[in-house]
Write a structure and sequence with these properties.
By secondary structure, the protein is an all-alpha fold. The protein is 65% helix and 0% strand. The model has no long low-confidence stretch (mean pLDDT 83).
Length: 98
């Protein structure tokens, strides 16, 4: 993927509203969404593969997520996040960015 693709994915990831509340939020929603999209675009087909891709792309992730990067979430963290993720937040982000 080229630099502009990563930039566009990051901009989109930041535009999606975080639905979570509480004090135990180790990973930002921006970083989880960004990493999941990068993993999928790199060919990952499941949460374990997304985690593996992200482990292998840590330097790229750090570059784009900078201060938000606190490591790569586990496959269970990705699964849990998207299990409860209100899909309409992504729909809202697409309609706001078009």
């Amino acid at each position: 993927m080229d630099e502009s693709a990563f930039s566009q994915i990051y901009i989109f990831s930041r535009s999606v509203k975080d639905f979570r509340t509480g004090n135990h939020l180790l990973y930002s929603s921006t970083s989880i969404i960004f990493m999941a999209l990068v993993g999928i675009l790199c060919g990952a087909t499941g949460w374990e593969e997304i985690e593996l891709v992200c482990q292998n792309k840590k330097e790229v992730l750090k570059k784009y997520l900078s201060d938000e990067f606190t490591g790569v979430p586990s496959h269970d963290c990705f699964r849990y996040f998207f299990l409860f993720f209100p899909i309409f937040f992504i729909c809202l982000s697409f309609s706001c960015n078009s």
